Amino acid sequence: MKHGFRISRPNRSNRAWTGDTHSPVKVKARQTLSQRKIMVSVIWERHGVLLVDVMQRGITINVEAYCQTQRKLLRAIQNKRRSMLTKGIVLLRDNARPHTARQTRDLLDSFGWEVFDRPPYKS
């Protein structure tokens, strides 16, 4: 399934009868753009989910949105797993291109978090 699309499955009323066989002909599923697409960031650690951040429709991940999510994560850690702050935090990012803007680096440095980026995928 392509990103941003959903598959509609046909129901029984969408089938056509040919008359020469005993079973109706199946209609192929249609792909339509999803109008309800939202972005959700889920951040977890070994004990469970720390933060579920649902972004407003139409907002993309940019410097401001990324930093805002990191601030929410800091508050979630302070509320749920305060002991993590004294042990040190290592932020492990996925294979997506990391946010390397100066504002992002400065924010994470101010938190005292170590950032561990995975090496790029090589085939």
From TrEMBL:
Signal sequence residues: none
Coiled coil: none
Domain of life: Eukaryota
Pfam families in the record: Transposase_1 (PF01359)
One of the record's GO molecular function terms: nucleic acid binding
Positions of region (Disordered): 1-22
Protein name: Tc1-like transposase DDE domain-containing protein
Organism of derivation: Cuerna arida
